DNA sequence: TTGATATATTAATACTTATTGATATATTGT
DNA sequence: ACAATATATCAATAAGTATTAATATATCAA
C-alpha cells in the first residue's frame, strides 16, 4: 500500500461516514458543543440505539471524539478529520482547475 | 425544505458518490484529462459495465460531465461540485475551531 | 440495595448498492 | 450491408448498511 492509496482510503472512509443524512445532522449538531446522546435524541428526533450506532460509525472514521463523564457520554466534533477530507477534495478540484488549459484527450 | 437541509442534501449526495474506492480512483484519473471509458478500463482495471455504472453515479452527483464524440464518451471532472463539498466540510471544521473557546456542555 | 437513567450491544429485518454476465444501442471502417 | 468497436442497460446475485426492538451494562439517586 503506497501513500497515495492510503490517503485515498482515508478520504473514502470519511466520505462514507459523511454519506448519510442522519450522520451529517449529528455533525452539524455537534459544532461548538460537547453533547450527550440523550440531548441528540431530543434535538434530532432519532432513536437512541440508532444514534449510538451512527456515533460509532463517526467515531471509527475519526470525525467525532467520545468522552465518558458520569453516566453520560459526551461527543464532540473532531475538526482535523473534516479538514483533511476537505483538503483532499479541494486538492482534486484545484488540480483540475490548474490543468484546464492543457487538457489531454485520449482516443483522439 | 429549507436552505440548510437542501445544502445538506447536496453535501450528503456528493459524499455518497465519493464514498467508494473505485469512484474515487475514477475522479483521480480524470484530473486534468478528458478520458473515454475504454481508457479508464485500461488504467483502472475495472470491468466496462461497472465503470459505466459508477460514471453514471458520479454524473448524477454532478462530479463529472460527459460528452459524446464519435463513438466515444468523454468524461471530465467538474471541479465546482468538489469545491462546494470541500467548502461544506471545511465550513463545519472552521465553525468548530472558532467555537472551541466557548464550548457548551449539556447535561451539566 | 433497589430503582431509575444513560448508553451500548445484539439479533432480526428491510433496503440499498456493488458486482458480474448477457445483451442492446450506436458509431465507425471495410 | 456487415463486422468491429465503444458504451449503456438489464437482470441476477452478493455484500453491505440502516433501522427497529429487545436486552445488557454502567452509573447515579433514594
Characterise the protein shown here.
Two copies of one chain form a homodimer. Chain A is α+β, with helices and mostly antiparallel strands and 108 residues long. Chain A has one domain: Arc Repressor Mutant, subunit A (Orthogonal Bundle), CATH 1.10.10. The first copy, chain A, contains five helices and four strands, in the order H-H-E-H-H-E-E-H-E. The first copy, chain A, has a three-stranded antiparallel β-sheet with strand order 1-3-2. The longest helix of chain A has 20 residues. Chain A is elongated. At the A-B interface, helix 1, helix 2, strand 1, strand 3 and helix 5 of A face helix 1, helix 2, strand 1, strand 3 and helix 5 of B.
Walk me through the topology.
2 copies of one chain form a homodimer.
Chain A: H1 3-18, H2 21-30, E1 33-36, H3 37-44, H4 48-60, E2 64-69, E3 72-77, H5 79-98, E4 104-105
Antiparallel strand pairs in A: 1-3, 2-3
Helix pairs in contact in A: 1-5
Chain A binds a DNA duplex (30 and 30 nucleotides) through helix 4.
Amino acid at each position: 500500500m503506497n501513500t497515495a492509496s492510503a490517503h485515498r482510503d482515508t478520504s473514502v472512509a470519511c466520505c462514507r461516514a459523511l454519506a448519510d443524512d442522519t450522520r451529517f445532522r449529528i455533525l452539524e449538531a455537534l459544532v461548538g458543543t460537547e453533547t450527550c446522546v440523550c440531548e441528540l435524541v431530543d434535538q434530532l428526533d432519532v432513536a437512541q440505539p440508532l444514534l449510538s450506532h451512527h456515533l460509532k460509525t463517526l467515531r471509527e472514521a475519526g470525525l467525532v471524539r467520545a468522552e465518558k463523564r458520569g453516566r453520560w457520554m459526551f461527543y464532540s466534533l473532531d475538526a482535523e478529520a473534516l479538514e483533511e477530507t476537505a483538503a483532499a477534495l479541494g486538492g482534486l478540484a484545484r488540480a483540475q482547475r490548474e490543468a484546464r488549459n492543457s487538457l489531454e484527450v485520449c482516443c483522439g
